[in-house]
Amino acid sequence: MSAAEHPELNHPEEMIRVDFDDRVMTITLTRPNALNALCKKLIMQLNSALDQAENDTRIGAIVITGSGKAFAAGADISEMKNLTFAEVAEKDFIKPWERLSQCQKPVIAAVNGYALGGGCEMAMMCDIIYASEAAQFSQPEITIGTMPGAGGTQRLTALIGKTKAMELCLTGRMISAQEAEAIGLVTRIFAAHDLMKEAMATAHKIAKFSAPVVRMIKESINNVAEASLVAGIRTERRLFQSTFALEDRKEGMMAFLEKRPAAFKNR
Ligand code: DAK
Prior knowledge:
Layout: E1 16-21, E2 24-29, H1 40-55, E3 61-65, E4 70-72, H2 77-80, H3 85-90, H4 98-101, E5 107-111, E6 114-116, H5 118-125, E7 128-132, E8 136-138, H6 152-160, H7 162-171, E9 175-176, H8 177-182, E10 188-190, H9 195-208, H10 211-225, H11 229-242, H12 247-257
Parallel strand pairs: 2-3, 3-5, 4-6, 5-7, 6-8, 7-10
Antiparallel strand pairs: 1-2, 8-9
Helix pairs in contact: 6-7
The structure holds 4-(N,N-dimethylamino)cinnamoyl-COA.
């Protein structure tokens, strides 16, 4: 199958690129100048590619990767900076991000560089996380006056345990691929030049098995991993939205964009 058979997925000003190789769809985030920050448009395009994969019986597995030095450096801070609590609560801000976690087909994250904030959360929504030796992970939201809002506090805790998740979310500390693998966040690490080859090999292997059986295994494992997360994720999103009522959240985001340290006032 070729990308030419799916022209609707490859527009000129796209934030993602979609490629097809036999039964595998690869989605590459192509906003390297903003470190693939997850703006609204990118998420919409990602969701539309996932819908396409889900509805196409020829697709058996999906690989998501970044371009340049990032997988994704989180939600787009410039898009969020002026949002108010009323706006984020009314629109249930970033709910569309859940689409990836609801995908029934197997998804492999091939993390090539920074996976920060929403980028780390996006990787954790995938089923398998392969990382290049140069990849780095963090939940740095606290440094910009907010908190993880797309499952970070929940999925990270499930994967690496409470105290490690606490330390990472409360400090925003960036960790290497090696540390991420050691604590159970990352499935396997590869040399940068082998990352996509290995992700594709695994995707092709899975895609050759019976699609209904693959779906059932995924559903069954997710039942352990996700079922108890539903309420937690809802609470986390509401708490995240509440940070938009804080002056500190606005100060944190402005300080990042103005490239200066944040001066938090605890209000
Ligand atoms: N948003 C917008 N622009 C970003 C960005 C981001 N997250 N990250 C980087 N950029 C932009 C920079 O502003 C810069 O733009 P120009 O100045 O060139 O115009 C360009 O990308 C290159 O970045 P740097 O110049 O900073 O590059 P460095 O190599 O010096 O630094 C860095 C790389 C990754 C350490 C640094 O860029 C960085 O700290 N980035 C921000 C990381 C971050 O704080 N991410 C968390 C964002 S908050 C929710 C779901 C999800 C979320 C919330 C709610 N719900 C479901 C409710 C998620 C929230 C977040 O992710």
